[in-house]
Amino acid sequence: xxxxRNNLYIRLEDNGAYRPATLPPDxxxxxxxxxxxxxxxxxxxxxxHAEIITRHLYDHHRRIEGTYTVITLPDxxxxxxxxxxxxxxxxx
Length: 92
Hints:
Elements: E1 2-3, E2 7-14, H1 30-46, E3 51-58, E4 64-74, H2 76-91
Antiparallel strand pairs: 1-2, 2-4, 3-4
């Protein structure tokens, strides 16, 4: 888990079996598919830019040894603070 100026992110790693590391996920991965759909709906509803990406993990010989997924969500608290700062600057 981490935080940048405008985003929160969660990174999940899995040393499981190989699967294509792209979204939308394949039909055998219903959980990831549902999560991607919900992120897309949230982006439309709230005019935001959340995302889920999945990529391969490699060993030092460049062999696939698993996957990682990063879920990035906008830090709404940062947006609230920025909006409050704009209002305060306009009031001065």
